[in-house]
Every structure is written in structure tokens, then in C-alpha cells.
Write a structure and sequence with these properties.
By secondary structure, this protein is α/β, with parallel strands linked by helices. It is 60% helix and 13% strand. The chain has 16 helices and twelve strands. A six-stranded mixed sheet has the order 6-9-10-3-11-12, sandwiched between helices. A hairpin with an 8-residue loop joins strand 1 and strand 2. The two termini are 42 Å apart. The model has no long low-confidence stretch (mean pLDDT 79).
């Protein structure tokens, strides 16, 4: 919404203001030249007001830019607050926070009102000042021109013609004043747009990124340390080797660093210390686009585009219908597609049919199968689903894991037991590792976590 409003402001400036301003400047300069040609003495008197006009416009430019910048910022806050409140309306009503939410919105809205009122006050000084200069200049010209007429050095016709052109001289000034607010609003929007466009990734890109022809799927984290906040390290001196085709489950309490490992493997971040390698090559030397095509990620939250189910599964790929049907069958989506009114060409997401949480998870598996990556990462893929959907997801997991190097973050025992090896994370380090039976026999952190799950389940 914020970006759309900024683009609309820019569009209005370029389509309805820039041409008008150019025309007004041409008229302004042409009339000034004509006035000097008619009577340079009267035009010189009129020119005394031009520095005042320029000073006023400079003041208005500085004040209006700050005012419109504040307006755009607070309007964005209102839009963000409304979006968050409307999307979380059920929670607000459940915990009886309607009154508090209303007060918070009123406070944000009042601040926006004050900023908008400040902008109006600035405009309320600028416009009357221009009109005041117009009145004073007319009065001074009439006084000076009248004295010249009485002395016989000027005719009444000359004075009347000069005053008529003076009115045309100030008309572009009025129009410039009226359009100036649109220009300043667009300039404030342009600052936000260019700030967004100038934002660069913090990840360094190699001069000649590598795109290996084949991927075995061997992953190595060598003495990796990482922190989002330098004072709060998430991963500390972590070393992990995943063999090609191996399935490794990563478990641990909240905040242990499980999801951070995935962020490092996808190269959303670079490690603070140590290295992350794929088939012996550091990820920082690989082409990021190529890397992310080799790693399929299934997350708990699945983004659905407002498009057909086919487009949501294939994304940027093109596959024959026979391959798409196989993918939907392997991802356990075939029954869901059969019930849709237009099959896989049914619009879903915003403006279409809404999928359940479980169906979204199955769609995520279909996307992975369509891309056929060598490495698969599952991040809580079976969370928040019912038993029947969990069974389908487990079947989809079995198909997706086959023949791929896989990292699985999960709490459910049925998913963990599929792993060749289980890594138990605690405070950014590997606390334990082994098979399910080995870890249960040790009576360590893994066994404690499983007992907590069973007691809560």
C-alpha cells in the first residue's frame, strides 16, 4: 500500500504537473521580457518583488518537503497498523483488545492529523504571501505610473496595458503555488522509492560466480559462528557434515539455532566465522540464484500467489501436464485438485479458493518436486495439521526425501524417525547426535524433549 501510494504520487506529478510547470515557467519568463520591452522603469519596480518571491519559495520548499516527508511516514504507519489489526482481528477479539487497539489507532491517526494540519498551515502562509505581493505590486505600479502620467511621461493606455500583463505575470505564480504541493508530495515519495531501489544486499557477490554442472549434495559447516545481534550469538563453533543422500533431522528447544542453520545454507546470511560448503565449494563463491535452485525449502508458512494452482506449483517452470499430474499425485494433492471446480487451473489465494493449512503444506511439497532440487530442507513441515493431513504429508515427505540430501527440522517423532541421523541442538551447539534409539538410550536432552512432547500430546 505504501509503495502504491508513492508510485501514484509520482505518476500524478509526471502526467499532470511537470507539463504544466514547464508551460508556466515559459509564460512567466515571456511576460517578464514583454513587460521590460513595454516600460523598463515599471518592470524594474516590479522586479523588486521577485527576490521576495524566490525567498518565499525557498522557505516553502524546505518546510513543505519536511512536512510531506512526515505525512508519508505517518500514513505508512497507519496502513501498517490497519493491516496488522485486520489480519489479527480474531486474536484482538479473543483477548478483548478492541478498546486498546482503538486507542492506539486514534493516537496514530491524531499524529497523522497534526502532521497534515502542519502542512496545510505552511501552504496557508505561502499562498496568501503571493497574493499580498500581487496587491502591493499593483498598488506600487499604480502609484508610480500615475505620477508618470501626471508628469506627461506615460499614457493611461500604457499603464492599463502594463497592469493587464502584470495580472498575467502573477497568474503563473498562483498556478505554480497550487501545483507546488503536488511536487513536494511527489518528491517525498521519490525519496522513499529511491531509498528502496538503492538498497543493496549485504551479501558479497563473487566477480565470477560458480555454477557447477553437477551437484552431489555434500554439505559441510566448518566451525561456523553466527549472530543476528553481535552481543547475542546464535550459533557457536558449529561443525556438521552431511553426506550426499543422507537425511539428517535437527531438533532442539526454541532458540537453539535450528532455523539459523537453514538461513546459512540458503545463504540468506553469511556466517560471522567459519565456512559453509557444498560439494567442497564455499557458498560465497557460488551463484546465489543457482544455489537456491539446488536447495528445496518447505517451510511452515507457505506463500500462496493470487494465481491458479498450476502456476503456484510450477512458478517459473514449464512442465507437461503428465509431469504435473505425477507431481500432484506424489505430493498427495491429487484428491484436492479433483475436487476443485477447474482442476489445477482453479484460481487460489486472494480472489480465489482458500486452501487449508494442510493443503498449503502439500502445495509446498509439490513445488519442491516440480523444481527437483538435489537438497531438501524441511522446516516444521508437519506443524499445525490434523492427523489425516499429517498422514498425507508423511507420504509426501517420503517421496520428496527419496534420493536427496535432506535436513529436517521437526518435533514430531514420526518425521524424526525417518532420519539417518538426529542432531540435537542446544544454545547454538550440537549437544547430541545419533539415531533415535541411541539417543533415547542415553537419557539426555533428546529423551527429555521426547518425554515433554509425549506428556503434552
Amino acid at each position: 500500500t505504501r509503495l502504491t501510494n508513492d508510485i501514484q504520487n509520482m505518476n500524478e506529478m509526471f502526467t499532470s504537473v511537470i507539463v504544466t510547470l514547464f508551460n508556466d515557467f515559459i509564460r512567466f519568463g515571456g511576460i517578464l521580457v514583454l513587460l521590460f520591452w513595454m516600460n523598463w522603469q515599471l518592470a524594474l519596480v516590479l522586479s523588486l518583488f521577485i527576490p521576495l518571491i524566490l525567498l518565499n519559495m525557498t522557505w516553502f520548499n524546505r518546510m513543505a518537503r519536511e512536512a510531506f516527508r512526515a505525512i508519508r511516514t505517518h500514513l505508512a504507519r497507519i496502513n501498517a497498523f490497519l493491516q496488522e489489526s485486520l489480519s489479527g482481528m480474531a486474536v484482538i477479539q479473543l483477548f478483548l483488545r478492541e478498546g486498546d487497539t482503538g486507542l492506539r489507532f486514534a493516537a496514530i491517526n491524531q499524529t497523522f492529523f497534526e502532521k497534515a494540519l502542519h502542512q496545510i498551515k505552511i501552504y496557508g502562509v505561502f499562498m496568501p504571501f503571493i497574493e499580498t505581493l500581487n496587491i502591493f505590486s499593483n498598488g506600487l505600479i499604480i502609484w508610480y505610473g500615475g505620477s508618470e502620467i501626471l508628469k506627461g511621461r506615460m499614457t493611461i493606455g500604457m499603464l492599463v496595458a502594463f497592469l493587464s500583463y502584470m495580472r498575467l505575470f502573477f497568474q503563473p505564480m498562483r498556478e505554480l503555488s497550487q501545483k507546488y504541493s503536488i511536487v513536494q508530495s511527489a518528491m517525498a515519495s521519490a525519496e522513499r522509492l529511491f531509498q528502496l531501489l538503492d538498497t543493496r544486499s549485504g551479501l558479497s557477490l563473487p566477480a565470477s560466480p560458480l555454477r557447477p554442472a553437477a551437484v552431489k549434495g555434500a554439505l559441510v559447516l566448518d566451525r561456523v559462528s553466527f549472530a543476528y545481534d553481535p552481543e547475542q550469538p546464535i550459533i557457536r563453533e558449529l561443525s556438521l557434515v552431511v553426506a550426499p543422500g543422507e537425511t539428517v533431522a535437527i531438533v532442539g528447544p526454541t532458540g537453539a539455532g535450528k532455523t539459523t542453520i537453514i538461513n546459512l545454507l540458503e545463504r540468506f546470511y553469511d556466517p560471522g566465522q567459519g565456512s559453509v560448503r557444498l560439494d567442497g565449494t564455499e557458498l560465497s563463491r557460488l551463484d546465489p540464484d543457482w544455489l537456491r535452485r539446488q536447495i528445496g525449502l518447505v517451510m511452515q508458512e507457505v506463500y500462496i500467489m493470487p494465481a491458479t494452482l498450476r502456476e503456484n506449483v510450477l512458478l517459473d517452470r514449464e512442465l507437461p501436464d503428465a509431469d504435473l499430474a505425477r507431481i500432484l499425485r506424489d505430493s498427495q494433492l491429487a484428491e484436492t485438485v479433483a475436487r476443485l471446480p477447474q482442476g489445477w487451473d482453479t484460481p487460489i489465494g486472494e480472489g480465489g479458493i482458500e486452501l487449508s493449512t494442510g493443503q498449503r503444506q502439500l502445495l509446498a511439497f509439490a513445488r519442491v518436486l516440480a523444481r527437483d532440487p538435489r537438497i531438501l530442507v524441511l522446516d516444521e513441515a508437519t506443524a499445525n495439521v490434523d492427523t489425516e493431513t499429517e498422514r498425507k504429508i508423511e507420504q509426501a515427505i517420503g517421496t520428496a526425501l527419496a534420493g536427496r540430501t535432506s535436513l529436517v527440522i521437526a518435533h514430531r517423532l514420526s518425521t524424526i524417525r525417518r532420519a539417518d541421523r538426529i542432531i540435537v541442538m542446544d544454545k547454538g551447539r550440537i549437544a547430541e547426535q545419533g539415531t533415535h534409539d541411541q539417543l533415547m538410550a542415553r537419557a539426555g536432552l533428546y529423551r527429555h524433549l521426547q518425554q515433554l512432547q509425549m506428556s503434552n500430546g
